[in-house]
Design goal:
- GO terms for molecular function: ubiquitin protein ligase activity.
- It comes from Rhodosorus marinus.
- InterPro entries: NOSIP, Znf-NOSIP, Znf_RING/FYVE/PHD.
- The protein is of the alpha+beta class.
- The chain has a domain at about 30-40 and about 190-270 and about 275-285: Zinc/RING finger domain, C3HC4 (zinc finger) (Herpes Virus-1), CATH 3.30.40.10.
- About 30% of the residues lie in helices and about 10% in strands.
- It contains six helices and eleven strands.
- It has helices at about 5, 15-20, 65-115, 200-205, 235-245, 255-260; strands at about 25-30, 50-55, 60, 185, 190, 210, 215, 225, 230-235, 260-265, 280-285.
- The strands form four sheets. A three-stranded antiparallel sheet has the order 3-2-4. A three-stranded antiparallel sheet has the order 5-6-7, with no helix packed on it.
- A hairpin with a 5-residue loop joins strand 2 (about 50-55) and strand 3.
């Protein structure tokens, strides 16, 4: 082994390689094709949807999972609302007690000033107590203030105040308000020659197609949902029939491009230049080191 290989970390400068090998600082890495979600998979379970439903902003969910998520949110909101109401009731009661005590104190002070009475010392009391103060300005008579280890002298953080919870359920991905009635049932058109395909072949070549042009739908093909019927068609058919001619290519009914089309969010491909809707870089935050 050469001398340089033995002493490659004894330089005066902390190099980039040494800093990277030390394990400090945030690390990022591009995800591969296996980590990219397919366009027809649920955003919660990451599995192909059995009963697909899409949100108004284009996120695809399985009906079972999105219903469970929204129900869980409602229960949490209900519990937080109850805690917040109890907190407000306690705060109101405390304020009433403080006002009542202040009112009684004001009445007693007014009566004392009106009658000119002064508080008399109790029998057996030898006048005001003298406080022993050292040259450092510390009161040595109150020894409890030095006993910091006693439970009574430990600092109290107090109860954390609960904010009023938002009564609206939200999309678990985009965090925008979402209600059950805003979800639209999605109808995919299976590929015609799907009978003899295996699961791996379906994932590679696609499970669904556009019912208008029979184009196979994949992550590289942008697709949208017709809100009125739930049918999924490719973006080229949307631009040709819906945007230009303003009709449904399946039923022939009039459509509004801005209101009746929901574009599906796709993970895109594994290529760096692909315009996917999901981030292709995974980040891991590590402790930072000051050099």
């Amino acid at each position: 082994m050469t001398r340089h290989s033995k002493n490659n970390t004894d330089g005066a400068v902390f190099t980039y390689h040494e800093k990277k090998e030390a394990g400090f600082g945030s690390k990022s890495q591009r995800v591969g094709a296996d980590s990219v979600r397919e366009f027809d998979c649920c955003c919660l379970s990451l599995q192909p949807c059995r009963d697909p439903m899409v949100s108004p902003d284009g996120y695809l969910f399985d009906k079972e999972y999105i219903y469970q998520n929204l129900l869980k949110q409602k229960k949490k909101i209900k519990a937080l609302t109850k805690e917040w109401e109890e907190q407000e009731a306690r705060a109101q009661a405390d304020n009433e007690d403080k006002r009542e005590k202040q009112r009684e104190h004001d009445v007693e002070e007014f009566s004392r000033l009106e009658t000119g009475s002064r508080s008399r010392m109790k029998q057996g009391e030898d006048g005001p107590r003298t406080t022993g103060v050292t040259s450092h300005g510390l009161d040595v008579t109150n020894k409890l203030q030095f006993n910091f280890w006693l439970p009574t002298n430990t600092p109290d953080a107090g109860s954390q105040r609960i904010r009023k919870p938002d009564p609206k359920t939200k999309n678990p991905i985009s965090k925008k308000p979402l209600r059950v009635k805003e979800l639209v049932a999605v109808k995919f058109t299976p590929v015609s020659n799907k009978a003899n395909r295996t699961t791996e072949e379906e994932k590679k070549f696609g499970r669904y197609m556009c019912p208008v042009c029979s184009r196979t739908l994949t992550n590289s093909v942008k697709s949208g949902v017709i809100r009125t019927s739930g049918t999924v068609i490719c973006s080229e058919c949307i631009a040709r029939f819906v945007e230009k001619e303003k009709i449904d290519p399946i039923s022939g009914k009039p459509l509004d491009f801005k209101k009746d089309i929901i574009f599906l969010k796709s993970g895109g491909t594994a290529y760096a230049a692909s315009k996917g809707d999901e981030k292709k870089v995974a980040e891991k935050y590590m402790p930072a080191m000051r050099v």
